[in-house]
Amino acid sequence: MSVPSCDQTLLLQADFDGELDAAQSAALAAHRASCPSCQQAAADLAALRARLKTEATYHRAPERLRRALAARAAPETAKPAAPWRRMAASFAAGAALAASVALFLAPQPPGLADDVTAAHLRSLQPGHLEDVLSTDQHTVKPWFDGRLDFAPPVKDLAAQGYPLLGGRLDYLDGRPVAALVYGRAKHEINLFVWPEPGADSPPTTTMRNGYNLVHWRAGGMTLWAASDVEKSQLEDFTALWRQEP
Amino acid sequence: MATRPDEEDGRAFEAAILPHLDAAYNLARWLMRNVEDAEDVLQEAMLRALTYYSGFKGENPRGWLLQIVRNAAYASMKLNQGARSVPIAVYAGGEEVPSHRELPDPGDDPEAALLKSRGRQGLDRLLAELPVELRETIVLRELEEMSYKEISQITGAPMGTVMSRLWRARRLLTEAAKAAGGDS
């Protein structure tokens, strides 16, 4: 990607970024076939994107800040020191906001959804995401053998935009469970699976601390998907996962 | 659960905005380039977001929040101007694109070997050294996967400017990465 020696360069880039309609894109493809400069530029664009995807740091909000935000009220006006406490105080000062602050103070009913959220959060700590790092379901599945007393269903959804990143063991509901990790852009989806007797149940979506959770039961397994992706996207993931044989 | 209007607002805020906390922090962190300032900016941005949320009717909460973060970050950088603006001040003057020679050359750097073996730090560092208007554009495009239109709305730059900034950012990164031998 040295000197842009072709006047189609920005168009090429727009095509690379999915910003062109079909007709523009087709016209550009015709030009590109005979333009070495554009071919080189396209290769450079793809190479840089691949490196950014794997090497550039995506800075996640520190858990401390997330918790402070979710539980931010508690206006200890005596101690205006910490910025987050100052923020809390200013929240509390607004009468209109008082009720919404109370919402955040209200204790969540303890339950599995909170445990799943906590497990998801733990997994986001550096180095905690996957024990077995593999995009190959045939590697991930045998890894669980001997580590669990059941065989979790392992599916790859790379073709649908949710590549399998790996798996690990977690502990939920008083037992070891399988955690499958899927990627979506720079976000992760944890899918927790363990056997639980009972009838199948359709997916239901809930939210905890800003994270979306989808829970369903199928084939004697209970499944929880947890992620910070949009609600609709997590539901899309769930639907695709359930369709996949 | 009671359903007072304010409480519904709070719940709607939690549902619409909190899922984008990572995106907000990521942008703040890449703009401010250190943890402390990024946290201050995030705090300020979330305060503004909560204050103005009741007036927000749009359909793109992530874009809306990132615009607030970006404004808070620029306000903070302006306040700190002179105090600690090193590479930003160097580049902010003109529209002239610095050549890759103006980026730190890892070849002259005792850490070069380390950087080569640790690509993440190398690329992160190159990204951090980009002029701020190029940096925000490529972070929004490649890390947040936002469209040109969304980037234009967040940064307030016309679409054509977004496109040329994106191109310049990519060209600088590609050249610098090649110079560092990172693309072998």
Question: Would you kindly provide a brief summary of this structure?
Answer:
By secondary structure, chain A is of the alpha+beta class.
Folded structure, characterized:
- The complex is a heterodimer of chains A (245) and B (184).
- Helices cover 42% and strands 22% of the residues of chain A.
- Chain A is of the alpha+beta class.
- Chain A has 3 domains: 9-55, no CATH class; 63-105, no CATH class; 112-243, MucB/RseB, C-terminal domain (Phosphorylase Kinase, domain 1), CATH 3.30.200.100.
- Chain A has a 7-stranded antiparallel β-sheet, sandwiched between helices.
- In chain A, α1 packs across α3 (36-55).
- The longest helix of chain A has 20 residues, at 36-55.
- In chain A, 29% of the residues are buried.
- Chain B has 184 residues and is mainly α.
- Chain B folds into 2 domains: 9-85, Rna Polymerase Sigma Factor, Chain: A (Orthogonal Bundle), CATH 1.10.1740; 97-184, Winged helix-like DNA-binding domain superfamily/Winged helix DNA-binding domain (Arc Repressor Mutant, subunit A, Orthogonal Bundle), CATH 1.10.10.10.
- Chain B is built from 10 helices and no strands.
- The longest helix of chain B is centred in the C-terminal third of the chain and has 21 residues, at 159-179.
- Residues 82-117 of chain B have low confidence and may be disordered.
- The chains are: A alpha+beta (245), B mainly alpha (184).
- At the A-B interface, α1, α3, α4, α5 and α6 of A face α1, α2, α3, α7 and α8 of B.
